[in-house]
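User: Second chain of the day. Same drill as before.
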Amino acid sequence: MPDAPKFRRVLLKLSGEGLMGGQDYGLDGATVTRIAEEIGFVVGQGIQVCLVIGGGNIFRGVSGAAAGMERTSADYMGMLATVINALAMQNALERIGLSTRVQSAITMPMVCEPYIRRRAIRHMEKGRIVIFAAGTGNPFFTTDTAAALRAVEMNCDVLIKATQVDGVYSADPRRVKDAVRYDSLTFMDVLANDLQVMDATAIALCRENDLPILVFNLQEEGALAKVVAGQGRFTIIQEGN
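Assistant: Same format as last time:
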């Protein structure tokens, strides 16, 4: 059983690919439900949680642009994909009895709330999980940057990034056998060594606002609860080690 949580309010960044399970694209219901249950356990410990979810399991703006589509249109399509994922996660969370709100940076009142900072904070103070959709609402910015921005705006204690591996490595450990794993890094380490954990804009934003980043493997059962208690395997990125 993990120790008591170290944080009061956290932002969890999920990749769209993390919702695919064993599929090549789309959403895997069992995977979404398992992640919802992990989040529910953390909320049950009294931690205020907000989420940003990518859309790469449905559409990626960068790949659309690479295929010849105009970048701005491709990015807006990617933002809509994140709304689909946010609604799917909302449904999974509410099926297990948790109260949630989806707030979109692109206004769509028939589907979800618009992003309003003070309202989002109030939701979390009431114990609701807030899912931020549609990135920043602007093209040319990733959902990593959206996660960093929302974490700062919500006065979160930490940004927790869920990945497919148990921390930050010098290279993709699934492809490079001798990749080196780091227990801790500074923001400058990440930028100087071009470590592909988050994009440079997100890292710079966290650095400017002294917001630590924890990187962990969400595929391991119970990993999220361990991370918020400062246990398990993860890499911490912060201003000083």
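Residues 9-238 form a domain with the Carbamate kinase fold (CATH 3.40.1160.10).

User: Great, on to the next one.
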